[in-house]
Specification:
The chain has 167 residues and is an alpha/beta fold. The protein is built from 5 helices and 7 strands; from the N terminus they run E-E-E-H-E-H-E-H-H-E-E-H. The chain has a single domain, classed as Alpha-Beta Barrel (TIM Barrel), CATH 3.20.20.70. Helix 2 packs parallel to helix 4.
Length: 167
C-alpha cells in the first residue's frame, strides 16, 4: 500500500521506549511554530513509499521493540498507517503514534478509518507542539501540553487514561 513519507529511521531511541522503527509521514496541517520536522509539512513533499517495504524492515530487525508513526501527521494517512500498525502487531511489536490533533477532537470527528487506526495503537502522544511550553526534560514529548495516552485503556473505559510507565 502506498504511503507518503518524509523518511524512516530504523533505530530510534527517542520516539518511545526501546529501539524503534520510526515512520515519518509526509503532510501536516498544524504548522506548529518551532516544529523540529518542518520538512514534513508539505503534503506534496517527501516521496511515495510502500507499507510492505516498511513491514519488511520491521521483520528484518530483531532488536526492535516497536514502531512509531510520526510526522507529518500520521492520522491523515489512516489506512496506510493502520496497515503498518497491524503488521507490527503480528510481529509482537508495540505501536506508538504522534499527532498534533487532540484525542477528544479525533474521537468527536469519528472518522471510521482513523478510529480503526487508533484501535491498533498502544500509545498516542497528542496535541500540537507549543514553543511557549517547550521542555527538554519531558519524556517522549516536546511541550508540556502534549499528553501520552494509553489508547487501549482509554478506548475500553471511554475515559482518557494517561500512559505512565516505561514498557
Amino acid at each position: 500500500m502506498e504511503i507518503r513519507l518524509s523518511g524512516v529511521v530504523n533505530d530510534s531511541i527517542v520516539d518511545g521506549p526501546g529501539i524503534r522503527l520510526t515512520v515519518f509521514t509526509q503532510g501536516c496541517p498544524h504548522g506548529c511554530p518551532g516544529c523540529h520536522n518542518m520538512q514534513t509539512h508539505d503534503y506534496h513533499g517527501g516521496y511515495a513509499g510502500d507499507t510492505d517495504l516498511i513491514l519488511s524492515a520491521l521483520a528484518e530487525n530483531p532488536l526492535l521493540d516497536g514502531v512509531t508513526l510520526s510526522g507529518g501527521e500520521p492520522l491523515d494517512q489512516p489506512l496506510a498507517c493502520k496497515h503498518i500498525a497491524q503488521g507490527a502487531k503480528k510481529l509482537g511489536l508495540n505501536v506508538w503514534a504522534y499527532t498534533g490533533y487532540l484525542w477528544e477532537d479525533v474521537l468527536e470527528k469519528g472518522n471510521p478509518e482513523t478510529l480503526e487506526l487508533l484501535e491498533q495503537i498502544d500509545v498516542l502522544v497528542d496535541g500540537p507542539f507549543q514553543m511557549n511550553q517547550r521542555s527538554l526534560e519531558l519524556l517522549f514529548c516536546g511541550s508540556k501540553n502534549q499528553r501520552i495516552i494509553d489508547v487501549k485503556n482509554s478506548l475500553k473505559t471511554k475515559n482518557l487514561v494517561l500512559w505512565n510507565k516505561v514498557e
